[in-house]
Each structure stands twice: as structure tokens, then as C-alpha cells.
Amino acid sequence: MVGTSLSQQLENYIQTMHDQGILDYHFDHVKALQNEENPRFLMEVISMFAHDAEAGIAHLTTLLNSAVVDFAKVISFVHQLKGSSSSIGGVRMALACRQIRHACDNMDKERCLQLLERMKQEYNSLKECLNIIFEMERSIVVANETRHRQP
């Protein structure tokens, strides 16, 4: 019973994130890959995304704050971040990454730095959303495991 109400709360929350434009259909595809054999799949994907995104953002920040910017390296990290955020359904973060990419094409360091701050804001919104989903998923998994252990 608890698992069902938590599952409904999770679905409602995900729908709200769709409505706010934070998540798109890619997230639903990732979530659909989770099954009874791998009930922690979504939590693992969220954890990997957050770890990789934090590292990528740190590298971007370092690169863009260098005296001489290596735009080829910036583009490489932006491309990775765009791909990972898009894959997990972080549509606004992916858009911010595309905007940085365009500023790199123009070798506009100041614009890149401005857009990096926007991308960090979008990442923080996405991270907050994914953290809530992670916690709800964990509660569902624990409730299901507890239910299966009972005689």
C-alpha cells in the first residue's frame, strides 16, 4: 500500500517536472528501463549523471577562467555535458550547453562565462529535481524489499 502511494507521488512529481520544462521524454525512457530485476537502475543512473556533471562543470569552470581559453577543450566538455543531460531528460541544461557551444564557436569568453553561470543554475535545478526523485525511488525500493521479506 505504501509503495503504491509513493509510486503515485513519484509519478505526479515527474509530471510536474515535465510541466515545468525541467525534464523531457528522455527521462521517461530511462525510467522505463528499470524493472524488478534491477529496481535501483534509475538511482544508479541519477548518481552517475550527478557525479559526471559535477566533474564536467568543474573542468569547464577551470577552462573558462584560464587566461587563454582552449575553446576546443571547452567544446569537448560542453558536448559531454549536453549529451549526458539530454540523455537523462534535462532539457533546460542541455539547451544551456548548446548555447555555450555557440559562444565557443565565436570564441567569446565573456559570453561563455555568462552562459556557464546559467548552465550551473539549470544543473542545480535539475539536480534538485533528480535528488527528490532519487529519494522517492529509494523509499519505494525499501518499501518493496520490506514487503517481500515479510512472511
Order of helices and strands: HHHHHH
Bulk shape: elongated
Largest sheet: none
Roughly what fraction of the amino acids lie in strands?
A: under 5%
Average pLDDT, rounded to a whole number, is 93
The Cα radius of gyration reads: 18 Å
**Structural class by helix and strand composition:** mainly alpha
Q: Care to count the β-strands?
A: 0
Low-confidence stretches are none
Please characterize this protein's 3D structure.
- This protein is an all-alpha fold and 151 residues long.
- It has six helices and no strands.
- Helix 1 (2-19) packs antiparallel against helix 6 and helix 3 runs antiparallel to helix 4.
- The model has no long low-confidence stretch (mean pLDDT 93).
